Every structure is written in C-alpha cells, then in structure tokens.
C-alpha cells in the first residue's frame, strides 16, 4: 500500500498540485532462474533478498533524487551494492525548464539532456488506488563486450498526480512515475507526501561538464 499524506494550510486541495512533494521508492531485485547453480550461490541469494530505499523531492521546476540515509548502516552489504549498480543509481538533479539532468559527483556536475522518447500506451493498472498507464522507452548502454546495445525501460505513471518527475533519470511523462522496471529490477513508490509549501531545491553551483566530456576523461583516466 502506498502511503499518501497531504500537508495543507488554508489552501484548497486543488492548489496542492502546483507545489511540491516527496516520494520514497523501494528498489527490488529481479528473480534469477532457479537453477541448482544459482540456488547454491550465496551472492545471488543475497541480491534477490536486497532492497534499497530511494527518495525523490520535487517542486514546480526541479527534482532531486538520491539514495535515502534512513536505516543507514556502516556494514557492507553486497546485495545492496550490487542492486545499486544494476539499477544505475546516481545522485541526480533534474531541471524541468532545461530538460536536463545533473549528476552530482564529488567535485563536479555532469550535465546531460533528458530526452526520453516515451511511447504511451492505453494499457493501465491500479497501483494501490492510483490508476496508472504504461509507457516505454529504449535506453542505450555499453555491454560487457564493449558493444553499444539497447534495453527497454517500462514506467507506470499516474495522471492523477500531474508531476513530470520520476525515479532514477526517468521523467517527462504527464504524471508522476509510481513504478519503473529496468533490467528486470523494479523501483516502486511506497510513500507520497504532497505539500502546498515550496521545497527549495538548488542545483549546486560548481564546475559543470557535459556527459561527453565526462566519458572522455574517464576513458583517458584524466583528472577533472
């Protein structure tokens, strides 16, 4: 069940849709084929049993997405670390006006366009009590063999919640993304808090480079 909370003062409930919100998502690992080899692999078992709590904050123009520090532990957890890599978790800012993503690295920001070519279908389903519609897009990635390949991303968005934001680097749909599937792994909304008070979100003011420049420096093992 998705927990939904409205924080309002003297404004009408309708006015809340032009303000801000906070969503907690849970990342869940895909299930691997039940072979004898997989059953005996403790790492696969740990990965399948792992979950990660993620947080999205947004206002009218900007969103911020990151792994939440709730239930944070100093103990190393292979399953959580592997799941973070599989879903492609990064600390991200998204500018709705610029249609750009900003990866927040230690000393720099990496800017790249957010231009997902979504295909929205008439297929729908209920997530908790929200009517959501299916949208898909393709994403290019570099496989282990060094070749560029494509994979399908599936999102379920809710027009009842008219915010063009979502988890990871996915956004731009006519409704908040409540569920997303990538590589068979899922990111599912668990709690939504909506407020008529503006959440202040500022993209950090530090050195910014493009994704192409970033990839080139990584390839050359150069300093930023």
Automatic annotation (TrEMBL):
Cited InterPro entries: GLPGLI
Q: Which NCBIfam families match?
A: GLPGLI
The protein here is known as GLPGLI family protein
Could you tell me which species this protein originates from?
Answer: Flavobacterium aquaticum
The top of its lineage is: Bacteria, Pseudomonadati, Bacteroidota, Flavobacteriia, Flavobacteriales
């Amino acid at each position: 069940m998705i927990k939904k909370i409205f924080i309002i003062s003297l404004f009408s409930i309708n006015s809340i849709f032009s303000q801000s919100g906070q969503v907690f998502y849970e990342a869940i690992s895909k299930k691997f084929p039940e072979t004898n080899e997989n059953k005996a692999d403790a790492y696969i078992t740990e990965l399948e049993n792992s979950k990660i709590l993620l947080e999205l904050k947004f206002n009218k123009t900007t969103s911020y997405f990151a792994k939440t520090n709730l239930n944070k532990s100093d103990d190393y957890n292979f399953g959580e670390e592997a799941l973070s890599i599989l879903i492609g978790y990064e600390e991200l800012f998204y500018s709705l006006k610029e249609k750009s993503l900003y990866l927040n690295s230690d000393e720099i920001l990496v800017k790249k366009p957010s231009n997902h070519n979504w295909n929205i279908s008439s297929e729908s389903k209920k997530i908790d009590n929200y009517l959501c519609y299916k949208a898909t897009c393709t994403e290019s990635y570099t496989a282990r063999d060094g070749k560029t390949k494509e994979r399908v991303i599936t999102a379920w968005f809710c027009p009842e919640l008219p915010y063009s934001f979502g988890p990871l680097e996915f956004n731009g749909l006519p409704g908040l993304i409540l569920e997303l599937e990538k590589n068979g792994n899922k990111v599912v909304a668990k709690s939504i808090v909506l407020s008529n008070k503006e959440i202040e979100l500022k993209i950090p003011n530090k050195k910014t480079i493009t994704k192409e420049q970033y990839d080139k420096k990584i390839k050359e093992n150069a300093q930023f």
